[in-house]
Design goal:
There is one protein chain. This protein is mostly beta strands. It has a single domain, classed as Immunoglobulins (Immunoglobulin-like), CATH 2.60.40. Helix content is 0%, strand content 51%. The chain is built from no helices and 9 strands. The radius of gyration is 16 Å and the shape is elongated.
């Protein structure tokens, strides 16, 4: 898997009004130091600091993270589904990059 790959797991089918768990795994090293020839060099922070999720365009989840979060973090959160739609999860990196993934909620 490449850096920034977002994989989202939702139930295959849901019912209106049901609370479902969304599980999200992102491939990311969460590096806080740069290394050259096996030795640390100038301090560089390159980690995910925020995650945000929307369901049919409406924000349903947001969390702040720190460099203490391990590499390839797994995030899980519940949402109440009212209709079929799209769950979009976006991770924000300290370098300004963003990584997103989507999954479909089906009834």
């Amino acid at each position: 898997m490449s850096v920034g790959q977002v994989r989202i797991r939702v139930p295959e089918k849901a019912k209106a009004g049901e609370v479902v768990t969304v599980r999200v795994l992102i491939t990311h090293p969460q590096e806080t130091l740069a290394f050259k020839d096996g030795k640390p060099v100038a301090r560089q922070y390159n980690f995910l600091h925020r995650v945000e999720a929307t369901y049919n365009g409406k924000k349903v989840f947001e969390a702040e993270m720190t460099q203490a979060v391990s590499q390839n973090p797994l995030v899980a959160f519940p949402i109440k589904v009212s209709e079929p739609g799209t769950v979009k999860v976006t991770f924000f990196e300290t370098t300004g990059k963003t990584y997103s993934g989507e999954a479909q909620i089906r009834f």
